[in-house]
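Issue: ligand-bound run for 2-phosphoglycolic acid - logging full I/O for the record.

Environment: standard queue, default settings, no custom constraints.

Inputs:
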Amino acid sequence: MTAPMAADPKAVVFDLDGTLIDSAPDLHLAANLVLRDEGLPEISFEQARSFIGKGAGVLISRVMEAVGLGDDPEEHARLLAKFMTHYEGEPANTLVYPGVVDALARLETMGCAMGLCTNKPGAPTRIALEHFGLDRFFAATATADTLPQRKPDPAPLHHVVRALGAGSALYVGDSEVDAETAQRAGLPFALYTGGYRKTPLAELYHSYTFDHWDELPEIVSRHFARVEA
Ligand SMILES: O=C(O)COP(=O)(O)O
Ligand SMILES: [Mg+2]
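Outputs:
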């Protein structure tokens, strides 16, 4: 007798910044604490928000460009290290988007396997997840330091899907980087419109959109009903 094939779990993978948590105020503050300490002009909240998506290293490159510093690698490494010392504390000004916890709890009761795929480094990711009680939902996580590749390379997303024991997954994110990652991974993508996206919706790859987290469980059940049909 052959063993029955394990059913592919309904897997859903989430982005973090701009999707589950609104971390822009703390990222803005940490960037400005570096600039203040260096005697440099500070950046606006809108600038900081627009620099989020490709991880802390790219954020610091964009900050350096914005204040007229060059792109010297040693200077970049020094400022990035300073930024991380400011950012790695408890997320004092970060909020979970409304409805996130209820939506994740609902997906859990629906039997979804859930994972996280973020360009945020591992240490602040773990601190934020624990701080907001979100860590219990995720059976697999890829952060900026899990693999050599980062989003929009599809490798971290594939890594999380595999770690969940799934062949496919719905990816949920807020930004251009997430849309490109899902597209390159060949996975469906649910775009949260409340995050840090700058590009018009019509120009971005997406399978679903939602403006409020209480809409997501219904999208997920529709999606998997269609996939299983
Ligand atoms: O920290 C960033 O720049 C991006 O993080 P995210 O991948 O969770 O959106
Ligand atoms: Mg994001």
